[in-house]
Amino acid sequence: MSVNSGFTMLELMIALSIGAILATIAVPSYQSMMVQSRLATQTNELLTALHFSRSEAVKRGMRVTICKSSSGTTCTAGSSWQDGWIVYSDSGTAGTIDGSDQILRVFPALKGSTMDGGTKFANWIAYLANGSSRGSSGNGNLVGTGTFILCNSTKGRKITINHTGRPYTETISSC
User: Fold this and answer.
1) Global confidence as pTM
2) Quick count: other Cβ atoms within 10 Å of Cβ 140?
3) What is the Cα–Cα distance from 40 to 150, expressed in whole angstroms?
């Protein structure tokens, strides 16, 4: 006498139903986690650029600037910060790449998030040899403090640069 072992059709249907219910619950949570992880990563990229610029300015004993750049080779005043930015040694006119300036690092465009430097950092932010910051306010004035706001579809992060040039971050609930 032969004995057949395996699953019955009813057992298979119950197992598939339980799996479908679990997937329905887990997938939205996973997507939300991925969006928040992307925002945290992009915030950390900007923090890296700020810390790198500040340390290079102190190390080199000269101004190091971060500016908006959609091309990765020149500063682009009309673009947005989420289009990308570059870090360069700035020995000439502040906020523009002159012949003697050296591009130190290029950061690509953000995907899935927006970034705004506000009115304080409209086009660029520079670190001086003492580690303090200066930025373009868009109206020709130079300011030392300001914020960057990074947003995704639901939440955001704010990076504030204090009067000594040190950046710090905090989570904001809405954008």
Assistant:
1) 0.79
2) 6
3) 9
